[in-house]
Amino acid sequence: MLTAMKAPLLAKLRRCLGRENVLTEPSELVVYECDGYTIEKNQPDAVVFPRSAEQVAEVVRLCNEYDVPVIPRAAGTSLAGGCLPVGGGVVVMLTRMNRILEIDLRNRMAVVEAGVPNLQLSRALAGTGYHFAPDPSSQVASTIGGNAATNAGGPHTLKYGVTVNHVLGAEAVLGDGSIIQCGPLPEPAGLDLIGVLVGSEGTLAILTKLWVRLTPNPQDYRTLRVIFNSVDDATNAIGDIIAAGIIPAAMELMDRGIVEAVEAAFHFGFPLDAEAIVVIELDGLSVSLDWQQRLVVELCNKWHAREVLQASTRAERELLWKCRKMAVGAVGRLSPSYCIQDGVVPRTQLPRILARVTEISGKHQVRIVNVAHAGDGNVHPILLFDERDKEQVARVLAAGEDILEECIRCGGSVTAEHGIGVEKLALMDRLFGPTDLTAMRRVRDAFNPAGRLNPGKLLPSANGDQTFRVGASRRALP
Amino acid sequence: MNQNPESSVSPATVELPLKEAVEPADQEAVAGIIERAWKDGIPVYPWGGCTQMGRGARAVEPGMGLSLRGLNRLVDYPSRDLTVTVEAGLTVAELRHTLARHNQRLPVDIPNAATATIGGAVAASVAGPRQFRWGTLRDYVIGVRAVDGSGMVFSGGGRVVKNAAGYDLCRLLTGSYGTLAVLVQLTLMVKPMPEETAFVIVEASDHGDAERILAHLVRTRTLPSAVELLAGPAWESLGDGLASRGGFWIAVGLEGSPDEVSWMVDQLQAEWREAGVALWHTLHGDEAWAFWDRLTEFPWKAASNNGDGELLVQFHVFPSAVCELVQRLRASQPRASIQAHAGNGVVLARLDIAAEQAAAMVEQNLRPMSASLGGRAIVLKQPRGSDLSRQAIFGPAPPGWQVMQAIKRQFDPKGILNRGRFLLG
Ligand SMILES: Cc1cc2nc3c(=O)[nH]c(=O)nc-3n(C[C@H](O)[C@H](O)[C@H](O)COP(=O)(O)OP(=O)(O)OC[C@H]3O[C@@H](n4cnc5c(N)ncnc54)[C@H](O)[C@@H]3O)c2cc1C
Question: pTM of the entire structure?
Fold first, then answer.
């Protein structure tokens, strides 16, 4: 809680934003004590709702004056605890900055305020022949600013890249409350600050406006659902497809465990002994899709595909996707709580990492089911547990850590798209060496020297600060 | 492959005030050399293939020349992962050759491939016509190892195509001109090689006509790899039967499988017919591949014998302002040769000019021209004998300048890396 000394800060925030845009009652703050990562919680001291970059800047300046942390938050769908008010502070909500400012087709660009939900932009673009390519599964809620702050991905990143490939410019409020605009024209003489701001999880600046690239809609699709008798067959087929020079728009893998969950929930009629289901989507020019599809089917058959289903109508396509899109929701049927992990390995290491996940599941006696953006080598093991059972929680955390360490050993990384947040802080110095982290700290110090923007995230502190170690064990025993 | 007369530049002919020059054979040695220079406080001037050394201002302070060409190993190429890890001094031609054996490529146009090193290309973020569909090196560098201005070796990114762990140091270093750190190793994402290519080319009579055609392309159902606008003496002829009538060429580059390319050629012609565009030409096969090379090499291929009197300027404007800018350029400089990556708003203008007039041309004529359209202009190459200041070369400080300077101070506290040559030098 803010000490009485800081009451003047609240008064100034109210004056600046209007009383109704500053929340301070514990009953109101409870919503903001965590985001999509629910294992750790802490209430902020206040939550504010600015409507312009100038207001955001004023909030940052005031928080500097009173030495209070500032935590940017948009839809709060972070799965890494990026919005957790670690040491209290003021949560800056970007959700009221939700106007689409311009759609400029001639320059294949849209200008949006940071709080515009991803899907809202897609809807606004309907009929233009263009779309915003990043499509995280949370796109109904998650915002373009949040997507940029986490460098979000999605099923279609295999072909279209992650958010950073689609951000042309940003208006941002820095740690000292100054406002800068980088882009939307590329910077030819200085540094690519946009490239650094994207994926910085609110620790370098608060993004207030974005210029994003628009991508032409594909002319046509071919969507297939392939059932394999083993996960290895599935990953081998996926490897062969890429090696054959075909880059599908998406290749999504689901293992037996998740298929069972989907089946129990939605009765698609999948064989319950299917070890792996892969949804493959090809898109592009109609003229080449048929032979690409033939080749894909051939390669799947080479790996003993048990069933290949090809969507021939739009409705069928949506049905094939539905089983993938509903997968995570269906997990709720299997277990009262679950934790979606996010790890990545070089594509060719997929069989190895998935085999290890199975072993780790046995070792820790934690049930794990898998979905994966397999074309990218991005695995999302989902660990099932009951959060009321502290002993289970400890095993889940240990299993998650084992999986990510195995990703590192495979030459991969501890997060492909969810970010480090607080969840993975303790893994940073296993993934990176001391000098690598030094280099990152320099970047943070250049943007955010006082360290008040989203403190305690993304980077472990230089002196191996105990608070984070304590934090990690606290998370182990919530 | 086109060979640029400058591609034979050896360290001895690079215009740098060198006390000595070294070519270390491994990455540790690079770190040792920089650490020593840091202790002594002397500038370090790194280079790779020396194909882009014309960029930036002339250095004045004597320092250490650091050739990275000794670092030329292919470290790892797991082709099924579509990634490759190389040392910075590997030539672009060697890299291409290696990738081609697996039917893969780095779809970024880098001139002078036989001499240019991949590290140099990344440091300068070299890009050409294909950036329209394929992006720039910033979209391909997924891992770096580099040595900062104190000799500290650090890495960023990794070897996976999707990575959200920590800050993106790869993007920070790409295009930083060696002012933050010297690149020693890179991991790049690569793509499958397309089998076929073609160009569909039309000559617009004036800039209004050109803009109409370009605006129409926004609705195309094809997927162009490049949308180029070409004008001036260098483009008087694009080949047999393709002589300019003084207008603006628009060249649309298409790549893909044979059936994709032939469909796109037909489709684009149909779209143009519908838009009332007449008289297009098509380049196929070898002719088209050769045209890609010509487009890639243009900026660095000297028009006159040695290119001594050449000023090369790069503009950045919105795509919608490209035709207007090119029109104004031509009105003011009728002998300028112009290549615009029109779909990206990048315009290159090459003009012959006396060394002593270069500064005024840039500062009083060209830069205000782009500024009036909301754009930027930087000099890529100045005439031999001219001595443009950094201000003249790069223009006013970019947005975020204070943050950039703070980053520079952090990575190169004594300012020894490329001192005096670049904005952050
Ligand atoms: C069901 C579900 C599915 C998901 N699927 C995917 C997926 O497919 N791919 C994927 O990548 N992620 C996915 N996520 C994770 C999450 O949705 C993404 O990280 C998303 O980009 C977060 O957006 P948000 O608006 O919710 O941001 P928040 O959760 O509010 O914030 C995320 C982080 O960004 C910072 N931040 C937010 N806005 C700004 C801003 N304007 N300026 C500076 N910093 C800011 C916050 O401080 C925090 O660190 C999923 C999450 C859920 C719950």
Answer: 0.95
- Say how far apart CA A280 and CA A264 lie, in whole Å: 23
Whether A316 and A224 map to the same domain: the answer is yes
Q: Whose CA is nearest to atom 39 of ligand 1?
A: A146
The rounded distance, in Å, linking the Cα atoms of A362 and A207 is: 43
Determine the Cα–Cα distance for residues B287 and A30; give it in Å rounded to an integer.
67
B392 CA distance to ligand 1 middle (Å): 42
Picking from A53, A70, A93, the residue at the C-terminal end of a domain is A93
Q: Which of B193, B403, B138 is nearest to A166 (CA)?
A: B138
Range of the domain at A403: 335-421
How many domains are there within chain A?
3
The answer to whether position A134 is within a domain reads no
> Which of 285-314 (A) contact B at CB < 8 A?
285, 287-288, 291
Domain CATH code at residue A76? 3.30.43.10
Q: Say whether both A341 and A411 belong to one domain.
A: yes
Q: Which of A93, A120, A144 is the last residue of a domain?
A: A93
Residues A296 and A341 in one domain: no
Token pair in block for residue B3: 């060979």
Domain assignment present for residue A462? The answer is no
Mean pLDDT by 10 residues, chain B (425 residues): 36 74 96 98 93 86 95 97 97 98 98 95 96 98 98 97 96 97 98 97 94 96 98 91 89 97 97 88 96 93 68 97 97 96 97 94 97 96 91 94 97 97 90
Interface confidence: ipTM more than 0.85: yes
For residue A445, count other CB atoms closer than 10 A to its CB.
16
Residue A454 backbone dihedrals phi, psi, to 5 degrees: 45, 60
Please tell me whether residues A298 and A360 are part of one structural domain.
Answer: no
Domain of A246: which CATH number?
Answer: 3.30.70.2190
Residue with CA at minimum distance from ligand 1 atom 44:
A202
Sign of CA dihedral B247, B281, B252, B209: positive
**Token pair of A168, please?**
């042309």
Q: Which helix (H) or strand (E) holds B186?
A: strand B181-189
Distance A473 CA to ligand 1 centre (A): 25
- Is A366 in the B-facing interface, judged by CB distances under 8 Å? no
B139 and A CB contact within 8 Å: yes
- State the smallest CA–CA distance between residue A305 and chain B in angstroms: 21
Listed by number, the residues of chain B in 165-194 with a beta carbon closer than 8 Å to a beta carbon of chain A are 165-172, 174-176, 180, 191-193
Of the partner residues A376, A435, A436, the one whose CB lies closest to the CB of residue B161: A376
A427 belongs to a structural domain: no
